[in-house]
Design goal:
heterotrimer, A mainly alpha, B mainly alpha, C mainly alpha, A: mainly alpha, 67% helix, 0% strand, C: 3 helices, elongated
Chain lengths: 126, 162, 93
Amino acid sequence: MSHLTDLPVWAAIPVCLLLLTGSAITLIGSLGLIRLKTFYARLHAPTLGSSAGIILICLASMIAFAVLQNRWIFHEVLIVIFVVLTTPVTLMLLGQSALYRDRIEGSIDVPRKTTREEPDLSALDI
Amino acid sequence: MRYWFPYPLLSLSLLALWLLINQSISAGHILLGSALGISWAWIMVNLQPDKTRLRKIRRIAVLTGHVATDVFRSNLAVMGVILRGSSRPANSGFVTIDISLRDDNALAMLSCILTATPGTAWLEFDRQTGVLMIHVLDIENGERWSDLIKRRYEGPLKEIFE
Amino acid sequence: MNELFIIWSILASQILLGLAMGCALFRIVRGPRAQDRILGLDALYINAMLLLLTFGIRTANSIYFETALIIAVLSFVSSIAFAKFLMRGEVIE
């Protein structure tokens, strides 16, 4: 029951373009998971899919459903809001736990915990 | 009025959420959604979050615009870094920044902005020293990044929240 | 002509998203450490959600949207739980 072919040309072209660019950007982001060398560099890769990819594909879905079913309530906005709000929290917590684990193991690649610097009294020359 | 509707913005957004999920704007759903929104706002009172009044609508709009353009630009930059691959690897690294922001909501906002932007990721914030550590994928020089974040995000957030 | 074009472009974007899921799966299998695997899992969730949205457009059926919404909610909870487990060794304190 594919009614997709009923889509008029003026709506079909933006839907196709948005879908293709969105999925290409998501693919590039996931490719980054393979190609980047360290964990902290890989931490940046999924944000591509979860910012640009989500927005573009949801936009395509909105246009398609609005034109096909003549329904102008955009519930795809919910997915965009949800993913955009939650992905930073996940990645932040993951980065923190990775930092914690690396420090426990005494890895030299991560900076030490920043401690409060004691004022150097001898240099003050009072 | 403030007693009955402790968090009007939260109630309104919950109502909008309810209507979007049910995909209808019939009177029944509006009634149910409003009841839901108002009762959730009362539950929020018990959680006692830090209250901030959002004033300066204009500053918020400007900040939103900045964030949108930065997300767009850094999307392109990160795609470039991934695609050019191992021939010219990006020198990624940790950057520490001294920030003077202390308001909890403002810090949460800043962390979400920094992590949502591909290319920067929030790692650690020490509340006592005010030192923030972020990881930057394509670092050109640390000074520029800390300047950028201080000027572009910290200043407006400070104005909005404090 | 028009029908063919839109069917093919949806198919192409589904293939691209499938490849993206393959990349994330590679990171889950290979990932040298636990945090890499969790990162791969998070990316896999998002890619799967996007794939479901494209299926929804293809069949013009809004049931796929609800599935995508559920995946979006559950992926957040599960990734948070995994990250929390890495940090503390316990999920609920």
